[in-house]
Design a protein that fits this description.
This protein is an alpha+beta fold and 87 residues long. The chain has 3 helices and 2 strands, in the order ααββα. The chain is extended, with a radius of gyration of 16 Å.
Length: 87
């Protein structure tokens, strides 16, 4: 909601952004065909939160989901994006 309010909704956010699936072709006519994303393009690569008992920083990491990674790869070099996307 906050990102949409400032004109930057989360990609594929059906409530505050575009409901339809996003494909590289829908963003740039020169992009290759791709199944696209059918969910919010959100990912937390790293979270650091205090442990509930000790208060010590507890870190969690996760690789980029396969569907988001494939979408980023398909978009690389299209729609004004760099040829290699930083992940």
């Amino acid at each position: 909601m906050h990102l949409a309010a400032i004109g930057h909704p989360i990609l594929c956010d059906a409530l505050y952004g575009r409901e339809e699936a996003i494909t590289p072709a829908s963003l740039d006519a020169t992009a290759p065909e791709n199944p696209g994303l059918r969910r919010q393009a959100l990912h937390a690569a790293r979270l650091v939160i205090p442990h509930p008992a000790t208060g010590a920083p507890t870190e969690f990491t996760a690789p980029l989901a396969a569907d988001i990674a494939a979408f980023c790869d398909a978009l690389a070099g299209h729609a004004g994006l760099p040829a290699t996307l930083d992940r």
